[in-house]
Design a protein that fits this description.
The protein is an alpha/beta fold. Helices cover 52% and strands 14% of the residues. The protein contains 13 helices and 9 strands. It has helices at 12-21, 37-41, 50-56, 67-75, 80-83, 98-110, 123-129, 140-150, 165-193, 198-205, 213-223, 233-249, 255-272; strands spanning 3-6, 26-29, 45-46, 59-62, 89-92, 114-117, 120-121, 132-138, 154-161. Strands 1, 2, 3, 4, 5, 6, 7, 8 and 9 form a 9-stranded mixed β-sheet that branches. It is globular and about 65 Å long. The mean pLDDT is 97.
Amino acid sequence: MKIGFIGTGVMGSSMAKHLLEADYPLHVYNRTKEKAMPLVDAGATWQDTPAEIAENTDVIFTIVGYPDDVKEVYFGEESVFEGLTEGKTIVDMTTSTPALAVEIAEKAAEKGVQSLDAPVSGGDLGAREGTLTVMVGGEADAYEKVRPAFEQFAGDLHLFGEAGSGQHTKMVNQIMVAGTMTGMTEMLVYAQKAGLDLEAVVKTVNGGAAQNWSLGSYAPRIIAEDYSPGFFVKHFVKDLKIALDEAEKMDLNLPATQQAYDLYKQLENEGYGDEGTQALIKLWWN
């Protein structure tokens, strides 16, 4: 099975590397070619457009930044759909909108192509270690076809239902992450103000009922003043806006998620959009 991979940023580069190490013939494309060159140097084949990726591979993975980027990759000039032929499979792992996932699936069906929406969670660490959580929407047979490839970079994967279900599940995930990130940040702010040993606090709290992934993964980075992006602030702002928009469609009020969005939007507005989500602490410690 020849695999195409579009989007070799913080997450995609590590995911694609796992596929290459598993001996899948890998073809890559990225808007900024230089970011894909380590994969090419390791044995991947460069293609000049998303259409060429689709023409030369059997399964095409995409993981880009925003829904507009997804639209461009699939529906723009020299796009994936221009290069697809019947029998192939497309897998969008970008955190995007459920409606766009459905639109892609409908277009794929017209061309005799299978489609999955499969956003991931686990950040840069999960991508590097091959332990990402993959949330999938689409047809069961397409899922089973792609499953061996998923398993190269996933620690947990699950098919949730029809097209768009993967994106809805990712919104559930991001709502939860919003709460743990704001809680972790305010915990550190309080602990510092109280004069406590922050490293000891993190170790102790993460061993009890307040244990969570954000605390274990991001609090040590904050203490080390490491704000490099495992996940960009600007992308989290995008995700939370999608979650709030979807909640509004379902006549749901999510005040805690709204507050998290407002805080991260403020952080982005203050110039920290390209830093990691742990930079939220800078609203207090700047």
